[in-house]
Amino acid sequence: MMFRRRPRAFDHELFIGTWLWIGVVVSAVLIAAGLVLFFVQHRTGYPAGRPLDLASLLRYEPNLTPALFPTTLRAVVAGTLQLRPYAVIELGLLLLIGTPVMRVAFSIVAFALERDRQYTLYTTIVLAILLLSFFLGRVGE
Amino acid sequence: MTPGVFVLLTFLASVGAGLLGALLGLGGGIIIIPALTLFLGMDIHYAMGASIVSVIATSSGAAAAYVRDRITNLRIGMFLQMATTTGAIMGAFLNGLVSPRLLYAIFGVMLAFSAVGMFQKRKEELPQAVPDSRAAARLRLEGEYYDGVLRQRVKYRATGVGGGFAMMYVAGLVSGLLGIGSGLFKVIAMDLFMQLPLKVSTATSNFMIGVTAAASAGVYFAQGYINPLAAAPVALGVLLGALWGTRVMTGTRSTTLRKIFIPLILYVAVEMLLKGLGWSWR
Predict the structure, then answer these.
(1) Residue A85: closest CA among chain B residues belongs to which residue?
(2) How much of chain B is helix, strand and coil, in % rounded to 5?
(3) Do residue B53 and residue A96 have CB atoms under 8 angstroms apart?
(4) Which of B55, B229, B238, B243 to probe the A interface (max A CBs under 10 A)?
(5) Taking a contact as any Cβ pair under 8 Å apart, which residues of chain B between 14 and 43 contact chain A?
(6) Which of A11, B132, B249, B281 is deepest in the core (most CB within 10 A)?
(7) What confidence tens digit (pLDDT) does each residue in B208-227 have?
(8) Coil, strand or helix: which one is B184?
(9) Structure pTM?
(10) First-to-final CA distance of chain A
(11) What whole-number distance in Å separates Cα of residue B260 and Cα of residue B93?
(12) Residue A33 and residue A13: Cα distance in Å, rounded?
């Protein structure tokens, strides 16, 4: 049975760990910044014609227009550029949600660089299933 | 309660959830959902959205440390992830078709049996006499890590690959059907079926739950389940708690971790059995 030695030059785990760390830190900074903006400016950035008390902010009203907060990437980016507190928070949250996907993608690269065909394949399968789930999720709406 | 007080309380609760989650390989959803719905009266949809954020935050927050410390076994994680993600998609589709109460009852029973299994292993610090497995050898499901509290390098290998794979598929199904991270099922699969060292199981589970949760998170976001005011303190608190948890884990014995697991598994088993009888957090 062939045992593949990991080439010393490339540390698979450190590479992925570093990128994860960067993603987590940037997302935390964005989320914190958005919260600070919310409390300092006393606004969410998405006025829904309601007062800023806790009960209103946490009421679940799925089809309210105008919406209490954005639910598409485009709206989040647009809102962030306008420094709307909720949009900045959501940008950070989206980045956080992206970190596991990023980790899988980077793993494919890492296994490929190690010439580990077996695990490059398995990891690619996982990414494919993951992307499939995003696609199916949208279709299901 | 003012928004400020709410954010602070949620943040503090989340630190606890992140700490426990990183330590045990769970997503913290087990703690977050009850805390938000029962104690803070939040709507279940927003609680689920916050829970999925907490699973990802626990996973990514802890992962950077565990992967660097080389406790996480990436090969085992990736190989098993094929089963979990497939299960998660099928679970999401089965959502409307199968009676949820029946499913809860089945999972409750499975967890109860697992609690017994975990209890029988309660004195075990490291796995002993793991049987040979050709499948595990072909897939290179082995490794070693440095155990900070035992102060020794531990070499290990897996067995029971088929059983572990099947259990991981169930973990994925649970995740898709119930909207939780199902880290508990993953740890059980690796600990009881594949006989990996407990710390390897928890660290690898931590790695896996994030990927499973990401599959649901995109949908939750589009459906408006992720309320920024709720999800923000949860994300920040859990990240902090998870970072703290990774440090605590190195100084903790596996037997101590098992002792925390047993009541936790029982708690979730009881919760699921109750849900099977029609009760819920709402």
Answers:
(1) B228
(2) 75, 5, 25
(3) yes
(4) B229
(5) 42-43
(6) B249
(7) 888 888 877 877 787 788 89
(8) helix
(9) 0.84
(10) 48
(11) 33
(12) 30
Nearest to A58 among B74, B227, B232 (CB): B227
* pLDDT tens by residue, B101-151: 787 788 788 888 888 888 888 888 888 878 888 888 888 888 888 888 888
E-strand spans in B127-185?
Answer: 142-147, 152-157
Chain A segment 18-47 residues within 8 A of B by beta carbon are: 18, 20-21, 23-24, 27-28, 31-32, 34-35, 38-39, 44
Contact B17, B53 (CB under 8 A): no
The beta-carbon neighbor of B232 closest among A89, A137, A140 is A89
CA-based R_g, chain A, Å: 20
CA distance B30 to B82: 24
What letter represents residue B232's amino acid? A
Q: Which amino acid, residue B164? A: G
- Residue pair A94/A73 in contact (Cβ under 8 Å)? The answer is yes
In whole angstroms, how far apart are CA B248 and each of B46, B146, B205, B243, B245? 30, 15, 17, 9, 5
Q: How far is residue B204's CA from residue B77's CA, in Å, rounded to a whole number? A: 6
Of A67, A56, A79, nearest to B224 by C-alpha is A67
Rounded Cα distance between A45 and A32, Å, is: 16
| Tokens linked to A32 | 């914190």
Q: Tokens representing B234?
A: 């949860």
Q: Is B135 exposed, middle or buried (0-12, 13-18, 19+ CB in 10 A)?
A: middle
A130 min Cα distance to partner chain B (Å):
6
Q: How far is A13 from chain B (nearest CA, A)?
A: 6
- Given B7, B88, B228, which is nearest A133 (Cβ)? B88
